[in-house]
Design brief:
Length: 205
């Protein structure tokens, strides 16, 4: 187990998760903003993706991909990742998530994302956490904002496959350690009855 929230357990993947991952990537709605709705071939998940995720665990449990399990039912809900991209500094992980359609609209992506952001800064010595998505993916952008990340930029990547909406580009959201610490202080004061609004400042996101 990597971490637990009120409703989620994030744990290591195993090869026995292949069927669940195949089913996740076979849903056109899940893959809409990733491949335009095309499913990821089973062989590709079996031979490329899953082995790459498992390889993270050989280096420890700091960064990696984690299966998201609903605590109440034991159901596989998808995955989250927290890891630096190739070429990124080791203390600047990217946050990512992909959940089954039945998990949408329940706040689960936000719950998992917030927990990972807190773990990154509170336990894993991250300097900065960031996430990206298509500019038109409003639901994913809301998750990033609710997890505390701020809009940084819109950019146009040279993707090998063009899908509807990518003409608007991609967006990056990020949070650094100082911002996270300030946000945490604001939350603590609000819990104690001293909100930012009380102090004459705008309320936190």
């Amino acid at each position: 187990m990597y971490l637990q929230t009120e409703r989620l357990t994030l744990r290591r993947f195993t090869r026995d998760d292949l069927d669940a991952v195949v089913a996740l990537d076979a849903d056109p709605a899940v893959m809409r903003y990733i491949t335009g709705g095309a499913a990821t071939p089973r062989e590709e998940l079996r031979d490329d993706y899953l082995p790459a995720w498992l390889a993270y665990y050989e280096r420890g449990d700091r960064w990696g991909f984690w299966a998201a399990i609903e605590r109440a039912t034991g159901e596989f809900l998808g995955w989250f990742h927290l890891r630096p991209n190739l070429g990124d500094p080791d203390d600047e992980p990217e946050l990512g998530y992909r959940l089954v359609r039945s998990a949408w609209g329940r706040g689960l992506a936000t719950e998992g994302a917030r927990a990972l952001v807190d773990k990154a800064f509170g336990e894993l010595d991250a300097r900065r956490v960031y996430a990206t998505t298509m500019a038109v993916n409003a639901a994913s952008r809301r998750v990033m904002e609710k997890a505390g990340l701020r809009y940084v930029r819109t950019f146009h990547a040279d993707w090998p496959v063009r899908i509807p909406g990518d003409e608007a580009g991609d967006v990056e959201y990020a949070l650094d350690r100082a911002q996270w610490a300030a946000d945490r202080t604001g939350v603590s004061r609000a819990d104690a009855g001293e909100s930012r609004t009380d102090a004459g400042e705008a309320p936190p996101r």
